[in-house]
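Ticket 4471: requesting a sanity check on a complex prediction with flavin-adenine dinucleotide. Repro inputs:
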Amino acid sequence: MKDIIIVGAGLSGLSLAFRLQQEQPHLNIQVLEKNLSFASNKTWSFHGGDVENIKNWKEIISHHWKTYNVRFSYEREINQDYYSISSDSFFKIMKNKLVSSLSFGVDVIEINNQSVRTKENIILNAKVVIDARSNDQISFKDLKKNGCGFQKFVGLEFKTKFPHKISVPILMDATVEQKDGFRFMYVLPYNENTLLVEDTRYSNTEDINLKEIELEIFKYIQNKNLQIEAILRTEQGVLPIPISTPFLSQGEKIKIGADAGFFHPVTGYSFLWVARISDELAKIKNPNPENYLNIIRKLKKECKQNERFYLLLNKMMFHASDSTNRYKIFERFYKFSDHTIDRFYSSKINMFDYLKILIGRPPISVFAALKVLRKKDNNLLLKEVGEP
Ligand SMILES: Cc1cc2nc3c(=O)[nH]c(=O)nc-3n(C[C@H](O)[C@H](O)[C@H](O)COP(=O)(O)OP(=O)(O)OC[C@H]3O[C@@H](n4cnc5c(N)ncnc54)[C@H](O)[C@@H]3O)c2cc1C
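Returned structure tokens:
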């Protein structure tokens, strides 16, 4: 019998296997993946404050910058580390490290905390089974039903003929035309001749017009007087930005990953929770379901702590602001201190941050915001922060 079975060889499942192997090398781990290979072609980024023990993750970080930039009607450099993981290099590292633990082409259809059943009706047992599957269609159905927004993006990674001279990431360049919601360019300079440029939109619709967006990216590059030598890669994605709680009713299952609701409600980023969960579970010396569940329960509580506030912001963004003025919410937000911005992204905001962000000169119509704020499910939050 295995010590640990992890179902799903994606970001959360492999990260946990990686950390378990580091901290508990005696454990016998098996990772089961439905597909025949890794689902690559993603860039996973995170802010410095998201991860407490960055040294645990050094090996898988592809790029690190000491500061980053945002551009609205003003330009600002924010003194905060920013990191990026390329899925290609992540999967290569995982393949080397976990080779004897990986099994591809195993479709798991039933999971209990100590056993799994595959599509071929094979039962596998372990001291602990962790569900790290994702199934976009099922999990995001409820969020969509409740009227979520979407963060959608198309990115081109390309080589420039000459050094591009962009030294730090531009997380939001919102000086571009505002259409299809809040729209900005996200720029990561990987080295002096390589850039990732992503056209990103906080939109009410999830459809992507690839041609139109690629043209916009080329236009942006041209405006920066950059000449393309080669397009190295394209990437695209649609992440739901919830206005209702993203946790599915999982009962007492040891479930991790984005499907378990472990992601930042405003950005859709999940690495902050991947790192926290993996670091904590890797400390457990005696693998049994109760020990694992205790940690999952604790982290779920932490994840939900500020959830209502983030969902409220999303509601205001998608239901109280007209889409062409949506950028004003972020334009105002990036005027706050580096610390508030840091706490916002790492899901560690406090009451003062709540007040600062919600109250003050509102960037959206007061009447529309109040209508959203006064809805019954926001009453508790209003009690906490005081009505504006
Ligand atoms: C293009 C893109 C860019 C993103 N960028 C960022 C970013 O910058 N920062 C960030 O933090 N987040 C980012 N995200 C969001 C999030 O981090 C990713 O979606 C992340 O991959 C979620 O990790 P996960 O382990 O939950 O799911 P996945 O990485 O999708 O892994 C789940 C795995 O489970 C497998 N599986 C599913 N069903 C079964 C089954 N029945 N049996 C066995 N295996 C199964 C799947 O095949 C998959 O390999 C991005 C998402 C996308 C789409």
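Notes from triage: The two ends are 58 Å apart (CA to CA). Leaving this open until the requester confirms.
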